[in-house]
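Before a colleague's protein record goes any further, I have to sign it off. Would you go through it and say whether the fold makes sense for this chain? Take the sequence as given and treat only the tokens as open to question. The record follows directly below this note.
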Amino acid sequence: MYFALLGSLELRVAGAPVALGGERQRKLLALLLLNAGSVLPYDRLVDELWEDPPPTARRQVANAATGVRRVIGQRLVTTPHGYLVRLGDDRLDLADFRDLVRTRRPSRRRWRRSCWAPHSACGVGRCWTASTLR
């Protein structure tokens, strides 16, 4: 699987796009991918997904996680404290970008499509700043 966060949120399997579900599922997946390999506590997810959380917010997070799991399978891990995404051999464009910046050898051909704008990462409602992407 290839996950794209820079620009619009996308998921590709063998080069073909995969449907990601509704806005809340997309936002949840984007948050988890931004923090791949780390547990995001339920309370933080609620705070990130709503400005004024409804009483059922935690249940809605669980429902969104079920939808995300339908798409990415066992990569989404439930813990007693929250959720995390384990990428394993999967690729994430943000990780590729970070690696290129670290080595200071960006390839125009590889990144010409992303047209990265830090203020519009993921394209799923609330935007994250460049500091979030570091």
